[in-house]
Backbone:
């Protein structure tokens, strides 16, 4: 996607992690009130419940806009590829 957008080097350096980014799904955080013990329990349960890790098709990427501090609303859906 970044290649298609072609941002300047300055924007790349400021906003994009590029090869340093590791795709992930956040299940919980201590920031939102979970304890370290709860996080560890969630980790073990997710390995048990989600393995083998499912695959899925992605048809679009949704971009959100922050309208006030920590409040986001959908801004735009970017379609990926073509429908079959």
Residues:
């Amino acid at each position: 996607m970044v290649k298609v957008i072609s941002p300047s080097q300055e924007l790349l350096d400021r906003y994009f992690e590029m090869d340093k980014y590791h795709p992930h799904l956040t299940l919980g955080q201590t920031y939102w009130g979970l304890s370290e013990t709860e996080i560890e329990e969630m980790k073990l349960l997710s390995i048990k419940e989600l393995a083998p890790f499912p695959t899925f098709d992605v048809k679009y990427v949704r971009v959100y806009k922050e309208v006030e501090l920590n409040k986001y609303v959908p801004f735009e859906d970017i379609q990926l590829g073509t429908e079959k």
